[in-house]
Amino acid sequence: LIQGLDHIGIAVRNLDEAIGTYRSILGLGAPHREEIPERKMEIAFFGVGGVKLELISPTGTESAVHSFLAKRGEGLHHLAFKTDDIDKAARALLDKSFTLAQRPTDGAHGTRVLFLHPKDSHGVLIELVQEE
Ligand code: CO
């Protein structure tokens, strides 16, 4: 059901600045950028080997990432694991009494995603992602 690590999400205050920093550290080309208006955030994806880095920045104070930054500052935001069946994964997690912070929903670039509540996973927000 779970196929591996898909990406690591990092919350940042200034997306352009963070892109520059990570390009400089890792010697990367320009990332794929995307705005997600319904979640009031802007993201940049870098491919690093088989894993992606996702830099996430809020575009409004209503954004969950805005409150995350206010509470915890910049840094690791979530780990995202690939699944081939997100609905089955969601049912399995609910059966095991995990709390879903968000039911399967449309994510960036045509994916479907769900989020587990971090209280159930030792303080780390876990995302599951299914391609298309
Ligand atoms: Co993510």
Explain briefly what this protein structure is.
By secondary structure, this protein is α+β, with helices and mostly antiparallel strands. Helices cover 23% and strands 44% of the residues.
Structure description:
The protein has helices at 15-26, 64-72, 86-95, and strands at residues 2-11, 32-36, 41-48, 51-58, 75-83, 100-106, 112-116, 125-130. With 132 residues, it is an alpha+beta fold. Helix content is 23%, strand content 44%. The protein starts with a strand and ends with a strand. Bound molecules: cobalt (II) ion (CO). The site of cobalt (II) ion has 6 residues, from strand 1 and strand 5.
Helix count? 3
What structural class do the secondary elements suggest? Answer: alpha+beta
Percentage of residues assigned to helices: 10-25%
> Assembly state here?
single chain
Strands, count:
8
Strand order of the largest sheet: 2-3-4-1-5-8-7-6
Mean of residue pLDDT values = 93
Globally, the shape reads: globular
Major β-sheet, in short?
8 strands, mixed
Ligand types: cobalt (II) ion
Termini separation comes to: 16 Å
Low-confidence stretches: none
Radius of gyration over alpha carbons?
15 Å
H/E topology pattern:
EHEEEHEHEEE
Task: Give the DSSP E fraction (strand runs of 2 or more residues).
Answer: 35-45%
